[in-house]
Structures are given as C-alpha cells and as structure tokens.
C-alpha cells in the first residue's frame, strides 16, 4: 500500500510541475507576443513658440491659410437649443462644419442619418465626410453639441503633426483593457486615420454596426475597437506642462475644483492656457465662452501671435 501511495504522490508532484512549466512557458509566449503588438501610449504635446518662430513669416502665413479642419457634430432633435448655440458660436471657426441628425429637422440644415443610434450616426457621418471631403481637409474633428471648442487652439496643437500619419487623439480614457478617446472632449482623426476607418466600415467582423455584443457600448468605445484593427490607437493631447487640452468637463467645474484643491493657485491649478475643448455647457454658457474667448479685448495690450489662422472665404467667422 505504501509504495502505491508514494507512486501516487510522485505522480501528483510530477503532474503539478509539468502544469506549472506549461503555464510559465505559455505566459512567456503570450508576453512576447504582447511586446510585439503592444501600443506604447503617447502623451502628444503642442509645439512650443520657439519651434513656430523658426518658420519664416511667409511660410507661417501660407500654413495658416492651407491648414483645414472639418467639424462633425452628431445631434438629436431633443438637443435643438444646444444645436442652435453651437451653430451660432464656435463652429463658425471650423473651415467647414456639418450637423448629422437622427431625423430631418426643418429648422436647421443637417444631414439626416435616419437612425437614433449614436454609433450608427457616427459611422455614417465619418463615411459621408471621407467620401465627400477626403482631398479637402487634413483633420476631422467630431464633437457633441454640449462641447465648446476653440478651433484655433486645435489647429495650433496639430500644427507639427502629419495628417498622412494615423493620428487619433483627444482625452484618453482606459477603464479596462481598451483605451479610447472620450467623445465628450471631442475626437480628432487625421486624414490617414479616416482612410483606414473608411476601409473597415465595410468589414462587419472588425467594425460591426451593432457592436456584436449582448450589451451595448458607447460610440466612442466602439470607434476605438474599429480603429484598433487598423493599427490606430488613442493618444492623449497635452500642453507642455502635461495638462489636458481636451476636457470632459465645463470650465466652471475646473475652476471650482481648483479653488478647493489649489486655493493659492486657482489659475495654475485649473486648466491649460491652450485648452481646445470643454464639455457639458448649456446654450447660455456657450455664448459666455464665445464672449470670453473671441470678443473680450484689453485695449492697449498687444498680442503678438506667431501664427494666424485665417477663416475660409465666405465664412461668417467672427
């Protein structure tokens, strides 16, 4: 009996060692594979003033004229007051802005996507934009109607980026394994990213219309899943001090938080000087932001900007 027990124990120990060895080797292979395909997260920063000043004045002027951003705003009829505010304020500073609605709304010009599903509206809007404007615009910026954007700051941030490279950037979020750009802060795609996404939109197994899951996921997460198949990964946009420039909250909330957390440095503890977006604004707050960003002036103080972005011909850009 004893020899049989010893043999049994030896067998158990040997089996355990083999299982452990297989597990370790398996992890080594998986780890190696992850190193080959893992995306190294980047914190993309804007160019500094010295870099811009190295460009000649004529080149800066030409660059300002040729740098073009197309804005996409997906909307629903219930957002009609925000829709009106966005149309009257910051979208005038886009080189072209178009609204993509869930149904036909006679009051506003919009492109009817004939669906209430925000992911379907987003993918249809991207397809429409690329099919029609692929040669005219370098960057494609999508924002919700509760977002306020400073397009000149967006252009400045993108100035040294190459639109022929697969950029996908904004405010990144990583709740689990999937890292994505939050639609609340706005999503920027380069022309190359749009090209890759456009190819995937016709491949249901990689970029499904309904997500292919029992539960529904948000449109920004679904976009990240599709772009991942194209080798396009989320990048967080920051200023030189590491502050986010795409924000998923309103400026007022940031100021309140700074007053609580940094009472002696409210301004420095709040937001980036070159913020691109704020989210969660009411229509009235949109107009207040417009006043503060574009209309309020301190006469007698001259700002010598190194770069000027001129509005397109025929624009009512103020």
TrEMBL record:
CC annotations in GO: membrane
Q: GO biological process annotations for this chain's record?
A: protein O-linked glycosylation
Q: How does it sit in the membrane?
A: Single-pass type II membrane protein
Top-level taxon of origin? Eukaryota
Q: Where in the cell is it found?
A: Membrane
Per the record, the similarity remark reads: Belongs to the glycosyltransferase 31 family. Beta3-Gal-T subfamily.
The record's principal subcellular location, in a coarse class, is: membrane
The entry's keywords: Membrane, Signal-anchor, Transmembrane, Transmembrane helix
Q: Which GO terms describe its molecular function?
A: glycoprotein-N-acetylgalactosamine 3-beta-galactosyltransferase activity
Q: Which gene encodes it?
A: LOC100622121
Q: What is this protein called?
A: C1GALT1-specific chaperone 1
Gene3D superfamilies membership: 3.90.550.50
Signal sequence segment: none
């Amino acid at each position: 009996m004893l020899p049989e027990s010893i043999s049994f124990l030896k067998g158990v120990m040997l089996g355990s060692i083999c299982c452990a060895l297989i597990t370790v080797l398996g992890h080594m292979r998986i780890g190696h594979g992850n190193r080959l395909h893992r995306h190294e997260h980047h914190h993309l920063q804007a160019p500094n003033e010295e870099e811009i000043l190295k460009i000649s004045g004529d080149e800066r002027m030409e660059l300002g004229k040729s740098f073009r951003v197309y804005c996409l705003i997906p909307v629903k009829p219930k957002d009609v007051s925000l829709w009106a505010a966005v149309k009257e304020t910051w979208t005038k500073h886009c080189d072209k802005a178009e609204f993509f609605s869930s149904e036909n709304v006679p009051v506003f010009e919009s492109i009817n996507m004939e669906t209430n599903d925000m992911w379907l509206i987003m993918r249809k809007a991207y397809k429409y934009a690329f099919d029609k404007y692929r040669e005219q615009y370098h960057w494609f910026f999508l924002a919700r109607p509760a977002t306020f954007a400073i397009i000149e700051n967006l252009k400045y941030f993108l100035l040294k980026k190459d639109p022929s490279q697969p950029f996908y950037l904004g405010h990144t979020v990583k709740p689990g394994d999937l890292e994505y750009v939050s639609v609340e802060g706005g999503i920027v795609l380069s022309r190359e990213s749009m090209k890759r996404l456009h190819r995937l939109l016709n491949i249901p197994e990689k970029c499904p219309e309904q997500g292919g899951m029992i539960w529904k996921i948000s449109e920004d997460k679904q976009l990240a899943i599709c772009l991942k198949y194209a080798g396009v990964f989320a990048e967080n946009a920051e200023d030189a001090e590491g502050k986010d420039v795409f924000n998923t909250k309103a400026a007022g909330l940031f100021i309140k938080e700074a007053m609580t957390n940094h009472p002696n440095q409210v301004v420095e503890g709040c937001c980036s000087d070159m913020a691109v977006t704020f989210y969660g604004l009411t229509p009235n707050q949109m107009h207040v932001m417009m006043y503060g960003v574009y209309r309020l002036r301190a006469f007698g103080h001259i700002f010598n900007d190194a770069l000027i972005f001129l509005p397109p011909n025929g624009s009512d850009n103020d």
